[in-house]
Design goal:
101 residues, mainly alpha, 78% helix
């Protein structure tokens, strides 16, 4: 059984761990926080897109090409934005690893 008092948010954990290293600049903590926020934004966009699809399916029984094309463009933009976030995070992690060497 999971105990509720053992749960902590990622942001709280990052801040707690940062206190253990007073000499740190905080850049790594900032990167982790940014990654956490980006993940939340992406999850929100995905949830919103799925709700739009369900509502659209309930409101119409015929396929509207213009609407479907608009939805496809929306998904492409979300996918593209997600790919850029992942690429940026990958670059940041590689730079951090290079600094540690």
């Amino acid at each position: 059984m999971l105990h509720q008092d053992n749960l902590t948010t990622l942001q709280s954990h990052i801040l707690q761990e940062a206190q253990r290293f007073p000499q740190a600049t905080g850049q790594f903590s900032w990167i982790l926080s940014a990654m956490s926020l980006a993940t939340k934004v992406i999850a929100s966009k995905i949830r919103r897109a799925r709700i739009d699809d369900v509502l659209g399916a309930l409101e119409s029984s015929n396929v509207d090409i213009a609407t479907e094309f608009t939805t496809m463009i929306k998904y492409q933009r979300v996918y593209s934005a997600n790919a850029r976030v992942i690429s940026s995070v990958d670059q940041l992690v590689n730079e951090l690893l290079a600094l540690g060497r």
